[in-house]
Design a protein that fits this description.
By secondary structure, this protein is an all-alpha fold. The chain is 84% helix and 0% strand. The longest helix is centred in the C-terminal third of the chain and has 40 residues, at 68-107. Keywords: Membrane, Transmembrane, Transmembrane helix.
């Protein structure tokens, strides 16, 4: 059996594996959720800038040089890093474990 036909057999077994379907569904759902969160916060900020720019320019306290806009941007920066870390942790844990299981099952019996 050639290398190409071995690969095709493994790929076919992977696609037929119900755990692969589960992996794709979980990963896509999680990525979609994180994308919606990021886009909502990001574009929400720009909507505030567009429709209420005075709010963004307000100082956090009297005599402070930090404005609401700067604080919001700092929050977004940190929050997006945290979301990235959450995704990486889940990808390296749950998603990689399922991937290894699917590949191991697909490789069985193919020589």
């Amino acid at each position: 059996m050639s290398s190409t036909s071995n690969q095709s057999a493994v790929y076919a077994r992977i696609r037929k594996n119900p755990r692969f379907t589960e992996l794709v569904s979980k990963r896509q759902g999680f990525a979609t959720l994180l994308s919606v969160i990021v886009l909502t916060i990001f574009y929400g900020f720009f909507m505030v800038v567009a429709f209420n720019p005075n709010l963004i320019g307000q100082r956090l306290s009297e005599g402070s040089y930090v404005t609401v806009g700067i604080a919001a941007e700092l929050f977004m920066f940190i929050f997006f890093w945290v979301l990235t870390a959450v995704y990486v942790k889940r990808a390296n844990g749950e998603f990689d474990a399922i991937t290894e299981e699917v590949v191991r099952d697909a490789a069985k019996g193919v020589k």
